[in-house]
Amino acid sequence: MNIISVPSSSTTSKLTHFSPAQNPDSSNSHFHAFRSVYPSLHNRSFSHIRSHDPSSSPILQEKPQISSIKDEESEMEDIESSLDEEIIRAKKSLEELLVIRKPVMEISDEEGEESVKDGNLNKLLGSSVIDEGLSRLAKKMSFFEPERVESSVEERPLLVNLDLALYKAKIFTRNYQYKEAEDLLRECIKLWPEDGRPYVALGKALSKQSKWGEARSVYEKGCQATQGENSYIWQCWAVLENKLGNVRRSRELFDAATVADNKHIAAWHGWAVLEMKQGNIKKARYLLGKGLKYYGGNEYVYQTLALLEVKARRYEQARHLFRQATKCNPRSCASWLAWAQLEAQLENHRGARTFFEKAVGASPKNRFAWHVWGVFEANLGNVDLARKLLKIGHIVNPRDPVLLQSLALLEYRNSTVTLARDLFRRASQLDQSHQPVWIAWGWMEWKEGNMDKARELYQKALSIDTNTESAARCLQAWGVLEQREGNLSAARRLFRSSLNVNCQSYITWMTWASLEEDQGNSVRAEEIRNLFFQQRTEMVDDASWVMGFMDIIDPAIDSIKRLLNMEASEESSVGGEDGNYGSTNDDENDDSSSGFDLDSFVREKLSLDPSNLEVLMGPRPEMNGRRSSDSDRRNAAAMPKL
């Protein structure tokens, strides 16, 4: 019995590692880890231990066998030694795991020396090896490299820098410095790819340079970068496609803009203008109503609805809508100008002049306001006032060729050819892609008898673009020139080409029919007139008044054709429902009835000296003599029907 008790006691002494009383924090955790890693060894060892329990083995108590006990004792010692080795390995593995989870801390030399003195040399060596491995791993993964993260954050400036960059790019674009603007906007897109404003600005800058493909690509990338949630990019893209004649695609993009933001009033209005130009008046009214429903009152929507009423000859309703537009925004120059044009059409000159004054008061530097007001005064024969208004407009907008174009035509009629030619040259240098300047200059050279020069200028205008309204006018004017010169086959080809661009031009159809009648082809002339009326009845409504603001104040020859008598003016027999607006009384149209002081306004709002306009306009060329011949003046009045 004593022999049996010896191994039992020795076994107990050797298995003290599993006792939770010695170190409950470390040994117990090591034991559980060993148990989970080596379950088979654990079960086998404990099965041997249980087999020596005195209570469980009565046979050994009766017949002890010393040899078998010794063999079993040696086996148990081997098992215990192997068990100790496995425990040590498990403990080391657990320590390594714990070291890896510790945060990496830089240790100075002094701290290292102190730790060595404290007997922590082994721990330092172990952690340094692990730190070296982790550093190698971090070099491969930028996520664990703090230097890269900090540098990326520092490279991206604050959002306020985007606002400053966009303003700077706007200034570059306004000064025709497109290269600088493009570089700056592309850098903004690189730093803030999720912001839609750089895409819109860059697309507009490219469109101004007629880089349609690049602009389309920028808008497409912008929609992808913003995940289709920026309605401004969709709307600008739709305007671009509409300008290129892709009506169906433009509709889809306007629809996407309204889906992205149903309160984006510019998308509703642009879509409505598109439908109006296509003759879908009911659809246009529906879209404008949608815009008012989701956004509320807007001056541009009311203004467009008013123009629809003007086209339908419901002038009182139009005035009511114009009144609503000016109530929404009393500083809306566009609404005042559109209303002034209505009153000018109805020959309510005093009312028109009042609204022109309100327009320039709302926007003192607006080039359209000064231009249209100047043309209006020239139509009434107020040449000095018209010249003054156009000069003021040019001084505050020195990069606009339209004002110089109108001033050149005014000077040609009332001054000298040399001055007019100089103004045309200056206008063409400001913007060489502006077709109306070349067309008007070509007409003047034709009237002066310079046929080759006129053809050269017409060809220059057509080389810019052959699919615009201005191109159609240029072809029609060139056709008239060839007709007067006796080149009838060339004139017919030019008239046909003009109608291919704009089949709704009444003047072109009638000019062609007149040519055939002059040649004795009355049957052919009647066919041409019938063709015009047939194709015209196919239109739901004439779109001449159905336009956006940029079309209302068209800087082409439309805006000055009455001034130059380019087409026979039809006497308006339409009277307004309100007697005050339909009146053409001399007292009401008297200049003295207006209390607007133009000179004081220019001094206060524009800081200009009205008596010094000639100096501000620049040097004038030498005069070769004023136009005094009656025949010359008749030639100036008998202009081609553009």
Describe this structure in words.
With 642 residues, this protein is mostly helical. 71% of the residues lie in helices and 0% in strands. It has 35 helices and no strands. The protein has helices at residues 2-14, 27-37, 39-51, 58-62, 66-101, 109-117, 121-140, 146-155, 159-174, 178-191, 197-208, 212-225, 231-243, 247-260, 265-277, 281-295, 299-311, 315-328, 333-345, 349-362, 367-379, 383-396, 401-414, 417-430, 435-447, 451-464, 469-484, 488-501, 506-518, 522-537, 549-552, 579-582, 598-606, 613-617, 630-637. Helix 21 (367-379) packs antiparallel against helix 22. The N and C termini lie far apart (134 Å). Residues 1-66, 97-125, 141-153, 537-593 and 622-642 have low confidence and may be disordered.
- Report the portion of residues in β strands: under 5%
Mean pLDDT: 76
Distance between the termini: 134 Å
What low-confidence regions span 5 or more consecutive residues with pLDDT below 50? 1-66, 97-125, 141-153, 537-593, 622-642
Shape: elongated
Number of helices: 35
Binned, the helix content reads over 70%
Q: Mind summarizing the main beta sheet? A: none
- In total, the number of strands is 0
What structural class do the secondary elements suggest?
mainly alpha
Return Rg in Å. 45 Å
